[in-house]
């Protein structure tokens, strides 16, 4: 489980009693989609015929544009995670990253799940002895993609949830 026991109000929309604005929620979803897409080839090289992870990423972006309902993006995220179940290693983690990106529309705090699984995918795909370096490079790439408006909150979230995210944010 990569979500905290107590929900951080910064990742709960204002409508639900938190402080997260819709524009920032959208930025979180787009960043999560970018993180997942960055490693998507690790899944697609193992299962080129399975469109579920790519579809989840696409529907996360479509949700941001107002083209699909939250429930559709969330369902696609669940299907992407289903694509991971019988896999191992980098392909599995990449599919989970896509699934997490898809469900950000429903629960914004899944943004960190997309990032964490993408880092795990990069680590798993690394040549022997290169896992930690590959993970750090992926983490640094992700941080370079962070929009300024959400940068501080995401970096703080990484610090707070690093332990439950396999310590992948030590970059």
Which key terms come to mind for this protein?
single chain, 171 residues, mainly alpha
Describe the structure in your own words:
The chain has one domain (9-165). Helix content is 64%, strand content 0%. It has helices spanning 22-44, 52-64, 70-84, 89-103, 111-125, 131-145, 148-161. The model has no long low-confidence stretch (mean pLDDT 97).
Form type = globular
Percent of residues in β-strands: under 5%
Spell the H/E element sequence: HHHHHHH
Spatial gap, N to C terminus: 21 Å
Which bin fits the share of residues in helices?
55-70%
Instruction: Give me the secondary-structure category.
Output: mainly alpha
Tally of structural domains: 1
Mean pLDDT: 97
Task: Please compute the radius of gyration using only Cα atoms.
Answer: 15 Å
Count the strands? 0
Count the DSSP helices.
7
Which parts are unreliable, with pLDDT below 50 for 5 consecutive residues or more? none
| Main pleated-sheet profile | none
């Amino acid at each position: 489980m990569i979500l905290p026991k107590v929900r951080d109000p910064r990742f709960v929309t204002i409508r639900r009693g938190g402080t997260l604005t819709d524009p920032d929620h959208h930025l979180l979803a787009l960043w999560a989609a970018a993180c997942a897409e960055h490693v998507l080839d690790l899944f697609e090289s193992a299962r080129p015929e399975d469109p579920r992870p790519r579809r989840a990423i696409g529907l996360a972006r479509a949700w941001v544009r107002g083209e699909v309902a939250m429930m559709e993006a969330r369902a696609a995220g669940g299907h992407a995670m289903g694509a991971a179940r019988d896999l191992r290693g980098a392909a599995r983690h990449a599919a989970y990253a896509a699934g997490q990106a898809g469900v950000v529309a429903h629960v914004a705090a899944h943004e960190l799940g997309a990032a964490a699984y993408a880092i795990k995918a990069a680590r798993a795909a690394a040549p022997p002895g290169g896992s930690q370096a590959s993970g750090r490079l992926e983490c640094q790439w992700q941080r370079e993609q962070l929009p300024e408006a959400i940068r501080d909150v995401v970096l703080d979230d990484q610090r707070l949830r690093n332990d439950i995210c396999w310590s992948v944010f030590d970059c």
